[in-house]
Amino acid sequence: MEEMVLMPAFYKNMTRTVKLGNLKIGSKYPVRIKGMLKTPYSDIRGLIAEAKHLEKEGAEALRVAVREERDAKIAKTLKEEIGVPLVADIHFHYKVALAAIENGFDGIRLNPLNISKTTEIREVVRQAKACKIPIRVGVNSGGFKKNFSSPEALARQMVSSCGRYIRILEKESFFDIMVSLKGSDAATTIIANELFSKEFNYPLHLGITATGSYLAGVVKSSIGLGGLLSKGIGNIIRVSLTAPSFLEIRVAKYILQALNLRKYGPEIVSCPTCSRCEVKLIDIVDRFNKELIDSGLTAPIRIALMGCVVNGPGEARQADIGAAFGKKKAVIFKKDKILRNSDENNIIKDLLQEVRKTWM
Ligand code: SF4
Questions:
Q1: How far apart are CA 80 and CA 85, in angstroms?
Q2: C-alpha atoms less than 13 angstroms from C-alpha of 72 in its C-beta half-sphere
Q3: Which residues are registered as beta bridge partners of 19?
Q4: How far is the CA of 350 from the centre of ligand 1 (A)?
Q5: Atom 5 (ligand 1): residue with closest C-alpha?
Q6: Nearest Cα to Cα of residue 319 among 264, 263, 268
Q7: Residuewise pLDDT in 10s, the chain (360 residues)
Q8: Which of 89, 167, 188, 310 has the fewest Cβ atoms nearer than 10 Å?
Q9: CATH assignment of 267-359, among 3.30.413.10, 3.40.50.2030, 3.40.50.980, 3.40.1160.10
Q10: 215 backbone dihedrals φ, ψ, rounded to 5°
Q11: Which ligand 1 atom sits closest to the C-alpha of 311?
């Protein structure tokens, strides 16, 4: 059966559909999540474990760095272990791209800034066409070896480099193209992708590159990717963090869920706490979240945990299930009705019991 979702009203910019293995990307299909393997090839067991972990976390495709022709053999090893499509990330040497195609990768990424000879590009395109695999044309801001006067100037250059490359592919009657335009800041990334989407209808792979420390990276990715997705731009996302790869998948899921583009399970609604709060809410939410993850609950329900009576009863009533705290005590609401009383020490157990009864 065709997999489809109802896109939110802002998703009007339909692109072409591109197939990566069995995964359809673009047009009416949900925004996909791609992960990236970070383990070195010298640790094959670790690499396989990472790939399995990312697939379990929700990655729908995986990007693998292929530096030399012999690295391309990794496709076969990984495909024996996981079911999601694999994309080879290629730089500098077009023969590595040919090796990746030959060894069974489901897609390749080419960088217009370091594989630029038309004869070489054509050879790769012909091979990709023969094997029916897509090419992602990926430009990163760090690939330019000069300074730009503004994010807009850099974004225009990125789009123009990408556009020239696309024309070469199109001349070969090749249209299974995806594109990524990644800046190391949200502004450049947003401008570049907006410019591109006005001119082309190829699916866009969104990401911010080189995002910095974990928290800064989460913020940059949320603003950059979220800003574009909220305008209906973007078909597959890869969050880049200087952090373990499974966290990139989790952040990607939070971004998509926050925009109601995908549902990945329960969402906790909790207040920031303030001097009105008379329970240790931060600790309660932290512990509840861990227990929820361990429980394996997948139902996309809203669970409220609120610190006091100011906004607590309202949020708890609007959630599927929720608790509003008073002084050490809590009232549990379920679907807009008061269900029972609880307290600071028992709230996690009591809420989980109710969640299990109805949604597991
Ligand atoms: S819900 Fe209450 S405790 Fe939480 S931030 Fe608002 S006023 Fe403060």
A1: 12
A2: 20
A3: 24
A4: 22
A5: 273
A6: 268
A7: 445 554 555 665 689 999 999 999 999 899 999 999 999 999 999 999 999 999 999 999 999 999 999 999 999 999 999 999 999 999 999 999 999 999 999 999 999 999 999 999 999 999 999 999 999 999 999 899 888 999 999 999 999 999 999 999 999 999 999 999 999 999 999 999 999 999 999 999 999 998 889 999 999 999 999 999 999 999 999 999 999 999 999 999 999 999 999 998 899 999 999 999 999 999 999 999 999 988 989 899 999 999 999 999 999 999 999 999 999 899 999 988 999 999 999 999 999 999 999 998
A8: 167
A9: 3.30.413.10
A10: -65, -45
A11: 1
Residue 143 has what DSSP assignment?
G
What are the sequence ranges of the domains in the chain? 17-258, 267-359
pTM confidence score: 0.89
Fold of 17-258: TIM Barrel (3.20.20)
Does residue 310 have its Cβ closer than 6 Å to ligand 1?
yes
Report CA(230)–ligand 1 centroid distance (Å): 28
Pocket test for ligand 1, best of 310, 315, 318, 331 (most atoms within 8 A of CB): 310
For residue 58, give the nearest of 282, 262, 307, 305 by alpha carbon: 262
